[in-house]
Amino acid sequence: MVNVVAAFVSPPQSTPEEQICNVLFTNWPEAWIETYVEKGYASVDPAVKRVKNLEPIFLWSDFVQKGEITESEKYVMDHAKDHQLKDGWSTSLMSLDGRVACFSFAGQNIDCSPDIRGMLNFVASLAFARAIEIKSGKVPAPAELTAREQEVLKWLGEGKTDWEIGMILGLSEKTIEKHMRNIRIKLSAVNRHHALAEAFRQKIIT
After folding, report:
1. I need a labelling partner for 81 at 20 to 30 A (CA). Which of 20, 147, 148, 166 fits?
2. Cα 47 from Cα 152, distance rounded (Å)
C-alpha cells in the first residue's frame, strides 16, 4: 500500500492544530500523524528540510544511505519505519500565493527506479492543484488556449524541451518560452508539470 500526504509546510513554532490545518489530504497511519505532530517532527524531518529548499523530487533512502542527515533526522526516519513508512519520494510544490508545500509517497515497498520520477511529479502536481480547489471551494473556469499553445503543450507532454519543441514547430526557443509563460498564466500553473496536469484535467489535451 502506498501512503500519500500533501501539506503546506508549517511555519516554525506552529501549534499542532495549525499543522493539522495545513494538511490538504493524507492516508498516512493515524498513529504516525499524531506522533509526528505531537513531537514536532516537522522541525527535524530531513524531507521537509529539502522541500523548504525547493529541491526537486527525491528519494528518502538516497540521503539516508549517503549519510546526509543528522542523528535527530535519522531518528525521525527510523521512527517512520515503525509505521510502515520504510522509504518514500517527496517533492516540493508552490501555490500561486507563494506557499511551499510537500507532497510525499511512502510505504514498505516503493518503486525506487529513476523512471518513476517524472510520473510522480505529474501526479503530485495534479493532485495538489485539485486538493487546493476542493479546500477553497473554488473551481476555476476552463482555460482558453490558442491552437499553437495546445501544440506546445502536446509536445511538452511528450517530454520535449523548449529547444526541441521549437525545432519541431519551426519556432525559436525564446518564442516557445513565451508560449509556456502564457500557458502557465492561463492555467494558473506554478510550473510546467502543473500546467501539463491542468491541461489533462481540463481535457485541453488528451
Report:
1. 20
2. 33
Residue 117 grid coordinates: 520520477
Judge contact between 116 and 67, C-beta under 8 A.
no
How many angstroms separate the CA atoms of 89 and 105, rounded? 5
DSSP summary character for residue 9: P
Alpha-carbon distance 141 to 180, whole Å? 19
Span 126-159, pLDDT tens digits? 788 778 777 776 656 678 889 999 999 899 888 8
Q: Could you identify the residue written with the cell 500557458?
A: 183
Cell readout for 89 is 519520494
0.90 cut: is pTM over it? no
Compute, in degrees rounded to 10, the torsion defined by CA atoms 195, 89, 4, 160: 20
